[in-house]
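Recap from last week: sequence in, structure out.
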Amino acid sequence: MHAAPVRANALPAVTTALRAVESLLLGSGQRTARRNAWNAVLEDRRRARDRVEAEHVLSAVADRRS
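Predicted structure tokens:
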């Protein structure tokens, strides 16, 4: 038996369904708090990537000077 192909639009449908369930279960304040927390996580990840990139650049400059 072959597995059904995964459609590119499957993920947005899941996301939409999850948001609908979220709106039923959580009040607007809780939704805002969850979104703010997720945005903070994404920002922390971005800063961590920037930090790692800066470390690589500084290490490369230090190696050239040695």
